[in-house]
Automatic annotation (TrEMBL):
<feature type="transmembrane region" description="Helical">
    <location>
        <begin position="47"/>
        <end position="69"/>
    </location>
</feature>
<keyword id="KW-0472">Membrane</keyword>
<keyword id="KW-1133">Transmembrane helix</keyword>
<feature type="transmembrane region" description="Helical">
    <location>
        <begin position="89"/>
        <end position="107"/>
    </location>
</feature>
<feature type="domain" description="G-protein coupled receptors family 1 profile">
    <location>
        <begin position="26"/>
        <end position="276"/>
    </location>
</feature>
<feature type="transmembrane region" description="Helical">
    <location>
        <begin position="256"/>
        <end position="279"/>
    </location>
</feature>
<feature type="transmembrane region" description="Helical">
    <location>
        <begin position="170"/>
        <end position="192"/>
    </location>
</feature>
<feature type="transmembrane region" description="Helical">
    <location>
        <begin position="213"/>
        <end position="236"/>
    </location>
</feature>
<dbReference type="GO" id="GO:0016020">
    <property type="term" value="C:membrane"/>
</dbReference>
<dbReference type="InterPro" id="IPR017452">
    <property type="entry name" value="GPCR_Rhodpsn_7TM"/>
</dbReference>
<protein>
    <recommendedName>
        <fullName>G-protein coupled receptors family 1 profile domain-containing protein</fullName>
    </recommendedName>
</protein>
<feature type="transmembrane region" description="Helical">
    <location>
        <begin position="128"/>
        <end position="150"/>
    </location>
</feature>
<feature type="transmembrane region" description="Helical">
    <location>
        <begin position="12"/>
        <end position="35"/>
    </location>
</feature>
<keyword id="KW-0812">Transmembrane</keyword>
């Protein structure tokens, strides 16, 4: 009979590695597409999506890759390096917060664009988006500073040593800022945005680009809810049963479930790209342009190199 510890290791090795590259590539492609298209660069909604994608890639490198290496391959440099230990905890306290906050800010941004109120539509400006995003980054960067101070290696494990900070991370950070507030904001403004889209679509006032952006936002909301909520439920369960007497097998089973749900939740930080491709024609077209441009540049470089080599090999041909 295969043990749950072995099953966890094999799952993380194969499924975890696949999910990391799958989501990381999706995040990189999202960054490229949103930063190269002039229309996307001028919209607050996609600007917040861009910041979220950047922070999401950092989170994938910091948390997902670290989980795969430590659980699947027994490689964890934070157990021996105090600097890496502190930097990882600092990043883990800030990057996902920036990504999640910008996710629901993108929903609010699209709600403002689709609003029938001219006053609300006037709030959807790039200048305001720049100011808000700067404030978001500063907030999460500052709130992560205690993780640099109260993190150290204990018994070969990188961990937060301050009990108050541990309680804040669990109830203030995870359940409040990373779960409850984003879910409420996304469901509320997502519903309002969808209602605005239906009303404007019936009156033929909604442009094609804004309609596709609304569909992208709604698809992203669905992805986040279906991937993050199950892990939040598991995390709440593990906290409530932390002091119960459990058999070794039960602990191993719960650890396996936690790794499955934890890795599934990483779709939030890169899986949106594949949904955007599915629901938005404009996004698909921009992806094709980026791929064609990349191929075109490769085709241009090779002939030039060959030409230089030909001239160097036959210097006497030039008269």
């Amino acid at each position: 009979m295969v043990s749950w510890v072995y099953a966890t290791k094999i799952f993380v090795q194969y499924a975890g590695t696949f999910l990391f590259f799958f989501n990381f590539c999706g995040g990189i492609m999202t960054i490229i597409v949103l930063s190269t298209d002039s229309t996307y660069r001028r919209k607050p909604c996609t600007y917040f999506m861009l910041i979220s994608a950047i922070a999401g890639c950092i989170q994938l490198l910091d948390a997902t890759l670290a989980r795969v290496l430590s659980t699947g391959f027994n490689i964890d440099l934070t157990r021996t390096s105090s600097v890496l230990c502190k930097l990882r905890q600092y990043s883990y306290g800030g990057a996902p917060g920036i990504a999640i906050t910008c996710d629901w800010l993108s929903v609010i941004g699209q709600y403002l664009v689709t609003s029938r109120s001219a006053r609300l539509r006037q709030l959807s400006t790039m200048k305001l988006a720049y100011h808000v995003s700067f404030g978001v980054i500063v907030f999460w960067a500052l709130q992560s500073i205690p993780f640099l101070i109260f993190t150290s290696i204990r018994s070969g494990t990188c961990m937060v040593t301050n009990l108050t900070l541990q309680a804040y991370f669990t109830y203030g950070y995870f359940f409040t800022f990373a779960t409850t507030i984003p879910i409420i904001m996304q469901i509320t403004f997502g519903t309002l945005t969808y209602r605005n889209m239906r009303m404007l679509q019936n009156s033929h006032q909604l442009q094609g680009a804004d309609r596709q952006l609304t569909l992208m936002v709604c698809a992203q909301i669905g992805l986040i809810l279906t991937t993050s909520v199950p892990y939040a439920i598991y995390y709440a369960y593990s906290l409530n049963t932390a002091y119960q007497n459990k058999t070794t097998e039960q602990k191993d089973k719960e650890n396996f479930v936690g790794n499955v749900l934890g890795l599934t939740a990483t779709f939030e930080f890169g899986g949106s790209f594949y949904l955007f491709v599915a629901v938005s024609k404009r996004f698909r077209q921009q992806v094709k342009r980026c791929i064609c441009l990349f191929r075109k540049r490769r085709n241009i470089v090779v002939p030039r190199t060959e030409a230089i080599q030909t001239i160097s090999a036959n210097p006497a041909t030039k008269q």
